[in-house]
Structures are given as structure tokens and as C-alpha cells.
Amino acid sequence: MTTVLFVGGGLHQRSAIQRIRGTGVRVVAVDRDEDAPGMLAADVCESVDFTDVAAVTEVARRHAVDAVLTVSADRAVPVVAAVAEALGLPGIGTATARRMTHKRTMRDALAAAGVSQPAYAAVRAAGDASGALGAVSLPAVLKPVDSGGQRGVFRIDTPSDLELDLDDATAESATGEALLEEFVEGTELNGIVIARAGEPEVVTLSDRLRPPGIGFGVGWIHVYPPSIEEHQLREAEAVAVAAVRALGLRDGIAFPQLIAADDGRVVVVEVAARIPGGQMADLVRHAVGVDLVEIALRQALGGQIPDELARPRFRQPLAIRFFTAEPGPLPTGRVARIGSLEQVLAAEGVVQAETYLELGETIHPVRRDGDRRGYVIAVADTGSEALRRAESAAALLDVEVEASMCAFELDHYRELLDAARAGGYRFATFDEAPAPGALFLRHDVDFSLDAAVRMAEVEAEHEARATYLLMTESVFYNLASPQGVAASTRLRELGHRVGLHAVYPHAVLDDRFDPVVGWHNPDPEYMSAPIVGAVNVYADPHFSRLSYRSDSNQRWRAGCPHEELRVGGFPWLQLLVHPEIWFYPGATMGQTMRAMLDAERAWRLDQLTADDVDLA
Ligand SMILES: [Zn+2]
Ligand SMILES: [Zn+2]
Question: How far is the CA of 414 from the centre of ligand 2 (A)?
């Protein structure tokens, strides 16, 4: 009986393991986690750390395996190659495996072959930063040279981003090395290329779409065929083939990721030597009828792959939509109930759907691949119609989360202050530079001085100090009125700082204000520019994406920070909290604002009466 060694036994390996067993082959799986879903699906599982080549080789030898392979796990690729080499089994070779997993080696090989790719530079320490910034123009992407997934990947917009993110990127690298790469604007493409006897052929290219914001690296929608123009599509195919050739893959499945740039170029982001995770094998099966798992198995056994297995049999437009939190179809929070997938599966055009959701787990805003909690695949006559069908089918999955513990209410604000204290943070003011443990509590007072004063009292009870930025040009309140003067005085009495929430371009500081300014609804062009005679809260050194959270529009884009504060997860933090959102009731910004207006109405009527207006 044929026996294969499967390196990696996680969720993304499970269906491939089941498929291979279904062909009558015995599967031995190795993974550190013996309870991993793929391990449970194998005939034999051996609990070893799969990055330990000697241990994996020993398992392979003991079971006299005929082949060794992996899917989805980039870290397993060099191990598979090394074990195959050690046992004289078919494989891609360790040199090719390194070129296809180690990002700097890959870039160097592509450069040597003249393959189109972004400008890049290696960085290890802060000392390398200026050289790298000389070679690569901003914006850029910083990533560890040898780590898969989206861990340690950062977008770099300014030299100070590089300074700030470098340690986090190199920490994800076994050798402490990162790459800075030019950020090329355009359409992201995923490719599948099959190389046979040294001849690579493109099987599919598809659009890879990703969410805005902090989860920018996560692919959350795939659409086949891609949306780019025909001539750029041909160029993309040529670049994909050239890249696979340059990296030396003779027999194997390659996963090139490309960008079809707005300027007409097509550049290589990276090329992996494996079947990718994220349902790409399903995409290929439904879109062109090619079975990547069967091909991977045959190639691992050293077999030849005939054209009828490796070439597209048809071309079916489709879309994959992953189940993710907003702006995807899922709510965030602890899962209390998961509705049936049946309605999703029954929706128009749906050919496959699955969820990995479990009761009691927490759905997070999208930040990494693991925040994708399932998917829907739909087909149609065009890619865009398939996407519309996948989106509407995904919306049919009914998931309820527990009423949020993180309500925008003053009680939770108290918990947040307690969490900050428990996490060892100290309340800092903008006349100091950020230091480890500093928490800059900032309040932009857009609409309501009442709400500001109430929040300030809560903070005083908790011995917390904040910086209140008040407006002189507010449409909603008058700082020069008796009420305005009283509020401002009260904020200072409670121990807080008072700065200016300015409307561009007027940053006129008088003696009511400390020299601290934050623009109201700023445009990116001037947001971070220096302000003469004042600290700009959006400028260096007080502003950095990793150390900033905001409750704007009653939504924490990267989640409520209370838990991260409690565990000291931020080196330091500027926390923007709008008092109105916490003071007035409402589950959404719209409800909260309406509650504020209702309260204001009563208060305005009192004022009119006090002004001797006849309201009868
Ligand atoms: Zn919270
Ligand atoms: Zn504002």
C-alpha cells in the first residue's frame, strides 16, 4: 500500500488529507498538535514539531513512506524538500525550496533573472533604515523574510513608521531579518501555476480583494476571472511563468501573488511552492476543473502529469467570500448562536460553503488570516455577478453574539480606566514624548460640553488625567458663553488639560488653552503637519498607527482596547474617546446622536424660557 507523509495537520490540511485517503493511500501526518483537525483525519498521526527536519525524517523512515508533501503551510515547504532529499524521494530540492520560502533569497533570484518586481531592501536593525529608505520609495511594505501569513507585515508610510514597526517585523523572523518593499498600487492577483518537467503553465489567475484598515493584508474575497484588461492579463501570465522558472521549480505547484499595477506593470509579490490555503484549491477546481491535490500527490510520488489533468477543462466565473467581521457579514463579539448553513448553501449560484465558527469563540475585527471564519463560493456568468451572489449568500448566515460587554457606556469606560491601571499604564499629557507605559487619553469635544464634564468627573474619581480638546468654532456649543466658560473651568479643576480642537486652518491659541491642538475631521494632507507653537496630536512623536485607538462613530476599528490595556499589550497608547458617545445612550452612533438631540431639545426649551421667550 502506498504511504505518504503529510507535513502539517491543521485545519487547512484536513480536506487534502481526507482526499488523499479517499484514493486508497495511507496518510501519516506530523504536527506538533496531536489534536489538530488534519491529524485526526490521518491514518497515523505523529506528534512532532514539523519544523524539526531530523524528527520528521525519522518518522518518514520508520513508516517507509513513498512520498512526502504538504499543502497550505509555507513553513513546511523547506522541511518537505529536505526530508525528500534525505530519503531519495521525489521533491523540489532544498535550494528551490529556499528560493521559494525565504523572501530575500527569492527577491535576489528574481532580480538576477530580470523578473518584474517591486524595489526592495533588506533591513535588520534601525541602522539599516536610512539605506533602505534610499533604495525603496514610500509608501512601502515591511515584512519578515521568512514568515508566512500576515504576521509582522506592516505598511510603511513615513520613516518613523519604519522605525516603529521594524522590531515587530524582525521579531517574526527566525534570523531577525525583514524586507522593505515598494508598495505598488494596483489589482492584486493570485496565480496557480503547474510546472511539469521544467515547463510552468498558468492554470488560473484571480483577483484577490482585501479589507480597508488594519487588516489590509488579509485576502477576504477572490474573484475569477480577474478584472484586469486582456493585455495586462497576458502580461501577468508571462510574469508568473517567468518567476516560477527563475526560482527553479521543475515539477510542482506554484502559487504566485502578483500586482497588476495602475501604471501598467505587473510585479511579483511572492511565489510559494505549494497549494495555497484559503480555498484556492477549491477555486481552481470549480473554475477550471483542475484537481490540485491529485496533482500534488502524483508529483510527490514522482509520477508524470498528463495534459488532461493539468490544463483547464472549462472556465467558470466564480467568487469566494470569506466570513469575516465588519465590513464582512459577521458581527464582532462572543458567539452565542450559529444559524444553519443550509440557507447559504441553497442560495443562488452557491457551490460550496463552510464555517469554522464555534460557540463561545470571539469574532474579532479582521486583522489576520485566522479571522476568516469560513467561506462561500458562488458561480455565475461573470465574476462580478458571482461576487454579488456570494455576498448575498454570506449575509444569510445568522450569527448572534452576546450583548457586548464593551458597551459605549460610562460603566464600561470605568472598566477601561481600571484596565489601563491594571496594565501598568500611567496617564500622560502631550507635553511629554511617548515613553513605555504612557497613556495619552484624548477627548475631542465635538458636540456636548455636558458630556465632557461628566466624563471628566468619572475620570477624576478614577484618578485618571485626560486632555480635553475644546472647539472655538463648534456648530454645537459656544465656548465663550457662561456655560462654555464654566465647563472649561470645571475640566481644569478636575485635574485635566484643556487644548484646542481646531477647525482647519484656524489654530488660534489663547490663554484658555494649553498648547495642544488636534484638527476636527482632518484631511490627510495637513493632519500631521507641524503646528507652530503647539503640539499637534496627530504628528510625530505622539501619533503612530500601532499606538492609536479611536472610538470614532461609535466603532472601535481594531476592537475595544480594554483587554489589550489590561495585559499591557500596547507599548504606549493615544486613546481618542468622544465623551458624547459614552454619555448618551444608544447602540449605534445614529441612536446616540438622536438621544443627544432629544436631551438638547429639552435643555434648549429651558434656555428659551429663561430668556423670557413665550413658549405657550
Ligand atoms: Zn471593552
Ligand atoms: Zn472633532
Answer: 23
Residue 494: which CATH number? 3.20.20
Distance of CA 497 from the midpoint of ligand 1 (Å): 25
Ion ligand 2 nearby residues (CB, 5 A): 444, 446, 520
Our measurement of the distance from residue 398's CA atom to the centroid of its chain's CA atoms, rounded to an integer in Å, reads 24
3-state secondary structure of 33: coil
Full domain range(s) for residue 543: 410-583
> Are 394 and 414 in a shared domain?
no
List pLDDT tens digits, range 36-72: 888 999 999 999 998 899 999 999 999 999 999 998 8
CA–CA gap between residue 521 and residue 107 (Å, rounded): 41
Q: What is the distance between the alpha carbons of residues 416 and 335, in angstroms, rounded to a whole number?
A: 22
Q: Is residue 96 part of a domain?
A: no
Each residue's pLDDT tens digit, 325-353: 866 888 877 888 999 999 999 999 999 99
Q: For position 373, which CATH number holds?
A: 3.30.470.20
CA–centroid distance, residue 445 to ligand 2 (Å): 6
Tally the domains of the chain. 4
- Tell how far the Cα of 140 is from the centroid of ligand 2, in angstroms: 30
Residue 462 Cα, ligand 1 centroid: separation in angstroms? 17
How much is the pLDDT for 509?
93
Expressed in angstroms and rounded, the spacing between residue 563 Cα and the centre of ligand 1 is 7
The answer to whether residue 214 scores a pLDDT higher than 60 is no
**Strand ranges inside 108-263, DSSP E:** 120-123, 140-144, 154-156, 178-182, 186-196, 199-209, 221-224, 252-261
Q: Give the global pTM.
A: 0.69
